[in-house]
Amino acid sequence: MGLELGDPDLRKRDAVLVDTFLTLDHAVELADQIAASGKNLTYLYITHGHGDHFFDINALKRRFPNVRAVATASVVDRRAASSRPK
């Protein structure tokens, strides 16, 4: 049996972030707060394809190299389409 989100052991050691901040400074500050809590950022869930929810993924990955960014297929498709030259 795997861990469930309600599992107290999971909540004690891991953190999940929903979307990122618009600025690098905010992302670094958030990463500092997560690290200070003693938790490991395991997942970054992207809710929709606006760029401000993707901008700082690399900054968070530098601090938490094993973090996995996840999104639905439609979010990934929208992000890919919006980054293509017009």
Structural topology:
Layout: H1 8-13, E1 14-18, H2 24-36, E2 40-45, H3 57-63, E3 68-70, H4 73-82
What does this structure look like?
The chain has 86 residues and is of the alpha/beta class. The chain has one domain. Helix content is 42%, strand content 16%. It contains 4 helices and 3 strands; from the N terminus they run H-E-H-E-H-E-H. The chain has a 3-stranded parallel β-sheet. Strand 1, helix 2 (24-36) and strand 2 (40-45) form a beta-alpha-beta unit. It is globular and about 45 Å long.
> Which descriptor suits the 3D outline?
globular
Tally of discrete structural domains: 1
Termini distance? 48 Å
Query: Can you count the beta strands?
Result: 3
Helix/sheet category:
alpha/beta
Determine the strand fraction and express it as a percent band: 15-25%
Low-confidence stretches: none
Topology as a string of helices (H) and strands (E)? HEHEHEH
Number of discrete helical segments: 4
Return Rg in Å: 14 Å
Task: Record the strand order, biggest sheet.
Answer: 1-2-3
| Helix percent band | 40-55%
Oligomer: single chain
Mean pLDDT: 78
